[in-house]
Design brief:
This protein is an alpha+beta fold. It has a single domain, classed as Arc Repressor Mutant, subunit A (Orthogonal Bundle). It contains 5 helices and 3 strands. Strands 1-3-2 form a 3-stranded antiparallel sheet. A hairpin with a 2-residue loop joins strand 2 and strand 3. The relative contact order is 0.17. Keywords: DNA-binding.
């Protein structure tokens, strides 16, 4: 008897799949780089919450954080890394597979 194939949902990456981190990686993939106020406004996050999630993604080398100035104002930017793009791509592939399985099961139940 062969072992069953693990369900694709078990392959979701905990570092990427959390909704705020998935949103951050998706936004950064689209934009390439974004500043802290833009991400905060777009995703409706507090400073602490955004900082914590960016820190978690940076610890996994999925984003790079850069600090600098725009004129006299200090700025913090986040950019997705190649590892972050790869992790996001893998996550999206698993989600696509899950969606396909879901839709296939619904087609047979009509």
């Amino acid at each position: 008897m062969t072992d069953p194939v693990p369900h694709p949902a078990l392959e979701l990456d905990e570092w990427v799949h959390q909704k705020t981190r998935l949103a951050l990686l998706t936004v950064l993939d689209e934009a390439g780089r974004a500043d802290f106020p833009y991400l905060k406004r777009l995703l409706g996050l507090s400073d602490g919450n955004l900082g914590r999630h960016l820190g978690a993604l940076a610890a996994q080398s999925f984003v790079e954080i850069a600090k600098g100035h725009e004129g006299r104002r200090p700025r913090t930017w986040a950019a997705i890394t190649p590892a972050g793009r790869a992790a996001l791509g893998a996550e999206m592939a698993i989600l696509a597979e899950l969606l396909e399985r879901f839709n296939s099961s619904r087609d047979g139940k009509k």
